[in-house]
Design brief:
The chain has helices spanning 2-8, 44-59, 127-139, and strands at 12-14, 21-23, 29-32, 37-40, 80-91, 94-106, 109-119, 148-150, 157-159. It is α+β, with helices and mostly antiparallel strands. A 3-stranded antiparallel beta sheet has the order 5-6-7. A two-stranded antiparallel sheet has the order 1-4.
């Protein structure tokens, strides 16, 4: 996500932080992270070109299914999304690894996302789908009424994000096809 964020920041990698802010029990802000440039890893024209290539991954590449109908999404309408995907076989834990790294930006708001899904013998939720959910959460996807609470201080609805539950693998019957070998006799 750090490298994707650098592409979104015109090639400038920012100092990473795990904690954005810390608030005491009485509501006093004790700490607020102030982003600082760490180093420039790309020239701006290179970052722009890479951003366009990553955007094509969303529009017509390996993530197009996960991000289809983005323009009709309330949360993702007019969000510029760019990403890169990949797959590999891993051994700890064993399985097929599916990953996505990218960024989204709209009206000055930016987020970088990295998602990794590890599949057993069957594919489940893809990393691109997890990334889309993260973008929707950040850019304000409508939350069903059952997941909202009302802030007593402001009277506004506060979405309550529910943790993603681990998907249990589906038991399936393996179909085995027997292949016939064709022998050709030559004279």
């Amino acid at each position: 996500a750090l490298i994707a964020a650098a592409v979104a920041n015109d090639g400038v990698m920012m100092e990473p932080s795990i904690v954005n802010r810390a608030v005491s029990k009485d509501g006093k802000l004790d700490y607020s992270f102030q982003p600082k440039p760490l180093l420039s890893i790309l020239e701006k024209p290179t970052a722009d070109e890479l951003s366009m290539m990553m955007h094509r991954t969303i529009v017509m590449g390996t993530s197009h299914r996960a991000f289809r109908n983005v323009s009709s999404s309330v949360a993702l309408n007019e969000v510029y999304i760019a990403g890169k995907t990949g797959t590999l076989n891993g051994w700890s834990p064993p399985g097929r690894y599916d990953w996505f790294v990218g960024f989204g930006q709209r009206d000055g708001a930016k987020i970088a996302v990295a998602a990794l899904c590890i599949h057993g013998s069957r594919h489940g939720v893809k990393a691109s789908q997890v990334a889309r959910a993260a973008f929707e959460s950040y850019f304000g996807a409508p939350v069903p009424d059952s997941l909202e609470t009302i802030s007593s201080a402001t009277g506004t609805a506060i979405p309550q994000i529910q943790p993603i539950q681990q998907v249990q693998p589906v038991q399936h019957v393996r179909h085995v096809r027997k292949h016939r070998r064709h022998h050709h006799n030559t004279v």
